[in-house]
Amino acid sequence: MGGDHLEAALDVMNDGGRLALCGAIAAYNSTDRVPGPDNMSNIITRALSLRGFTLAAHLDLSQEFNARMTEWFAAGEITYDETVVDGIENTVDAFLGMMHGVNTGKMLVRI
User: Fold this and answer.
1) What's the number of domains the chain is made of?
2) What is the pTM (predicted TM-score) of this model?
3) For the segment 42-97, what is each residue's pLDDT rounded down to a tens digit?
């Protein structure tokens, strides 16, 4: 769930640190209020800044982003995690697993 990740991040933030907040996938299908972190006071005591963002607000940077990412991938400077499930017949299980957080990184179905 997203709340436990935010809680872990708040515990290790440096004074004056900044957090970028995006998405709320942990709560997408929740019918109850999702429990939140109990250490939000760190935002005050460490003078942290939290700022939300959306992709749509930065579309003007997409060409630059694509050019830089292409270079970084080619140079091996970008790494990522992914979980691969084999077989289209396992698509539903892969999706449900993703929604329950059983994957690491991106969830992919290889067909």
Assistant:
1) 2
2) 0.46
3) 888 888 888 888 888 899 999 999 999 999 999 999 988 999 999 999 999 999 99
Let me know whether 46 and 8 are in one domain.
yes
> Whole-angstrom Cα distance, residue 52 to residue 5?
16
Q: How confident is the model at residue 24 (pLDDT cuts 50, 70, 90)?
A: low
Say whether both 65 and 96 belong to one domain. no
Domain of 71?
2-75
| Residue 1, pLDDT score | 47
User: How far is Cα 37 from Cα 50, in angstroms, rounded to an integer?
Assistant: 14
Tell me, letter by letter, the H, E, C secondary structure of 53-79. Answer: CCHHHHHHHHHHHHHHHHHHHHCCCCC
What are the angstrom distances between the C-alpha of 78 and each of 55, 70, 99, 106?
A: 20, 10, 25, 14
Asked if 15 and 59 sit in the same domain, the reply is yes
Token pair of 76 as six digits = 């091996």
